[in-house]
Amino acid sequence: MSTVIRTCPGCKTVILSDTDQCPECGHVFYQRRSSDGAAMSTTDELKSAAIHEACPHCGEMVRAGLVRCWSCNGFMRADIAARYKDLTNNPQKIIYSTIPLEQRTDYLPARNDAAGGKQNNVEADEFTLSDDFNLSSVLDSAPSVSTAPAAPAPPPADGPDKPQQTTPGGTAPKTAGSTAPTGETATEKAESEKSDAAKTAKSEFLESRKKAAASDDDLLSIAMEEQREARKRRGERLAERQKKQMLVPCTCGTWLRVNDDMAGKTVRCRQCKQPIVIPEIKKKATDKKDEKAAPTLDVTWINDVWFHVLAPTSVVLKPGSLVGKHTEADLGLTATGLHIVAFTGGDKKKKSLLSFGSSDKKGDRQAHRQQVRDQVAATGQISNLPNCDLKVISADDMRDLRLVQPVVRVHESMFAGVPVFGEGRIAVYLPLIPEDGQQAFCSFPLTAWRSFSSKLKQLFSVELPGADNGIPETEKSDTLSCFVNQTKVESIRNLVYYQQDPAFELELSGFRCKACGVAISEEGRKKNKLGGANGKGIAKAKCPKCSGKMGEEPLYKIKKVAASDSSTES
Fold first, then answer.
1. pLDDT at residue 69 is higher than 60
2. Where in the chain is the domain with CATH 2.30.29.30?
3. What are the b/e assignments for 252-276, b being 16+ CB within 10 Å?
4. Which one, 17, 86, 285, 401, has the greatest CB density within 10 A?
């Protein structure tokens, strides 16, 4: 019985020849009729048949019609496994023959069935493979058949009857059933076995050379490392020896290199042979003083903070009522606490920290600030600062800090929700105890507040509820559409915080109508000349949508942010 394996024309799956339908794509090769003559007429009836079967080796479910199991790689049918084992264990033998000299031509005739259609009693059509079938993967998984090496045969004698590897017209003859002498055939077989033994010896030799090369590489690397180490030690010894040598001049102009331990001895010049007395050089002994490195202090400075000291009962609940009542100061945050450095003038009568206003000019203030920074860096501590009033809040008292502006819940606000420290500023209560029952506060712009709150959380694990009370943590904008030319109008949120912060540069992007809320870009306003050429009359201009007064509600976008934050230094 011949077993034929073919491929499905639809999906190229390897299947047996007696499979009616491809188990992968469902392609029907032909429909078999049952014994009673009823044919399966529909595809649904074909699919109703079992398309999986259990593997006889591992029990996994395999699609019907497959040659091998996908799990254990075993054959699904015993006859195919037996046939495959027979082919691998009994390969077809090769018979070498020679052509007599008088019968040699430029070509060999094609082999026909009468000349040698059968070899080793194996029919040619007994096992047929399709062109698409790849047997290399099957042979790789098959057990290897070991063959004992044959004894080397004596080399064949040279002569006209010597077997030739190729004919004058083409490839070597492979005709089966030739009537060559037995001695000639044995010689060819011996040469073939000798060639196989030579190939095996060559492969073993190459493998041993690879292992030897790997070991040689390891030894070479070790030797090179030792050579580098020896060269390094030799250079160190040479450098140490040169340190102990000195140059002595001769009257002939030659310089002699001698060791320092030869002082007082007499040597001869190599050039003029004159004696030279080596002088004794006295080295000045220098005592090395152990200079202690200046202590370093990790401090973060926040510049230009407003420091307020006031009595809560004297505060006027009016927006910005405490703007002019402050002292400019710098905050130094260290692991030990918060240091408030308030600058005063250079007069003999030092101004009190509780006094308001500052008499220093801007240039003098910057020079004074740099002097304080240099002293802190040199001494490693914040104390005894020139022309400064210093207040310190310890690390244990940092948890008493409170946010007093802005406060969303008005009933919890100390100032009834009124921005007395100025619109767009953030104020914090400081746990200091000034005189006469007064209280201390600090107010910041947005950039300084972000640095201050970040350091509080990092150093003291204190987090003030800034985001919960409307302080923007990041820049967020709204994108509106212009009613006039349908362009995009960008509007920064919480505009007042950015207007009061010098670190941000804003740009006018448009206006919003207070009556209907429509947005008009600056280009659209200029095109329609709303509020005049420069827009000063925009508050009384008519809205192009509702014809009401526009009102004064400008829209801004951030044009530039300071590259280096001058209000914060580390």
1. yes
2. 300-469
3. eeeebebeeeeeeeeeebeeeeeeb
4. 401
CA contacts within 13 A on the Cβ side of 94: 9
What's the CA gap between 559 and 569, in Å, rounded? Answer: 24
Report residue 351 as tokens.
């101004």
Three-state DSSP string of 234-245: HHHHHHHHHHCE
Calpha distance 140→26 (Å, rounded): 30
Query: Rounded to an integer, what is the distance from CA 359 to the centroid of its chain?
Result: 54
Cα 215 to chain center, whole Å? 36
Written as six digits, the tokens of 42 are: 């529909």
Concatenating the DSSP letter of every residue in 154-206 gives PPPPPSTTSPPSS-TTSS----TT----HHHHHHHHHHHHHHHHHHHHHHHHH
User: Distance between CA atoms of 555 and 491, rounded to whole angstroms?
Assistant: 5
The domain 300-469 is classified under which CATH number: 3.40.190.10, 2.60.40.3140, 3.40.50.460, 2.30.29.30? 2.30.29.30
Residue 89 has pLDDT above 90, yes or no: no
Q: Which of 76-90, 154-168, 412-426, 520-534 shows the lowest mean pLDDT across its residues? A: 154-168
SS3 label, residue 523: helix
Write down the pTM of the prediction.
0.48
Pairing of strands 439-444, 426-430: antiparallel
Read off the pLDDT of each residue in 229-252 and give the average, rounded to a whole number.
84
Q: With contact defined as beta carbons under 8 Å apart, do 306 and 331 qualify?
A: no
Give the three-state DSSP class for 34.
Answer: coil
Q: What DSSP assignment string belongs to 81-116?
A: HHHHHHHHHSPPP-------GGG--SS-PPP-HHHH
Q: Which residues contact 263 (CB under 8 A, 6 or more apart)?
A: 278, 279, 280, 281
Check pLDDT > 90 for residue 190.
Answer: no
- Rounded to whole angstroms, what are the CA distances from 414 to 39, 326, 368, 419, 546? 95, 18, 35, 11, 42
DSSP 461-515: -----TGGGT--SS--EEEEEBTTT--EEEEESSHHHHHT-TTEEEEEEEEE-TT
DSSP state at residue 207: H
